[in-house]
Amino acid sequence: MREFIITVNSTVDLPKEWLEERHVPVLPLKYTIAGETYTDMSGLTAKEFFQKLREGHMSVTSQINPEEAREMLEPFVKEGKDVLHLGFSSGLSGTCNSMRIAAEELAEDYPEAKIIVIDTLCACLGEGLLLYYALKLKEEGKTIDEIAKWAEENKLHVCHNVTVDDLNHLQRGGRISKAAAVLGTLVQVKPIIHMDNNGKLQVIAKERGRKKSLNKIVDMAVEQSKGWENEIIMITHGDCLKDAEYVAGRVREKMGIENILINNIGTVIGSHTGPGVVAVFCMGNER
């Protein structure tokens, strides 16, 4: 059996050290803010990035193109390795399609190689959760085909429960109207968002006040995860660690899970959610 690796995009939003320890190659996306272009995971720190957003700067992201995707994948194929790529949701970016184009081109040049690209229909630590279990299966000796099959069968069981503090970023991204953003801000409405079956973010509810919205995303995770064995819960935040820690406490209390990974949301995903976002990711019932 040929050796294989699992690769991801930077939108996985796991700590860089976590990925390096597990030898997971990452192809980063880029973003431009205040006239400067940076690379996700190695550009601005989370605090620097979110401070710029708070100052009113807009961040514009760019997807991976097929040439960049090929440049990342080809060295592994040349070494005689197969590749399983867990891609950023096609509902949010054309990056996954670029990865597929690169994989098809490489398959022509290296017919002995196997390159599988999975459209995870996930984002942020939702991708991270899928990667966590894929790596576990790899450690157990599962083949690249077995892990790819598992990922396809379970990707819609990765539940994304999100709340944001600043409605203006959703409005800029076309998720809500400008009038709704203004009104919502005035009355302290906090939207509850999830990832739908097409890998797109959808506002599904609204809560009055921050604490209620944080409690709501935990309650959603509790309900979704019934009947599922969650080894780990992942929580992301947009430079609001105290809120993330509050949510982690509620997860421990209501779900009985101690293994919780908390990490700042990445700069590319954070460009669209703004500061103050908090999200809980778990395995559970279909979205």
From TrEMBL:
A Pfam family hit:
DegV
Annotated GO MF terms: lipid binding
Alphabetically ordered keywords of this record = Lipid-binding
Q: Which InterPro entries match?
A: DegV, DegV_C, DegV_domain_contain
Whether Cell inner membrane counts among this entry's keywords is no
Q: Which domain of life is it from?
A: Bacteria
What the protein does? May bind long-chain fatty acids, such as palmitate, and may play a role in lipid transport or fatty acid metabolism.
Protein name per its UniProtKB record: DegV family EDD domain-containing protein
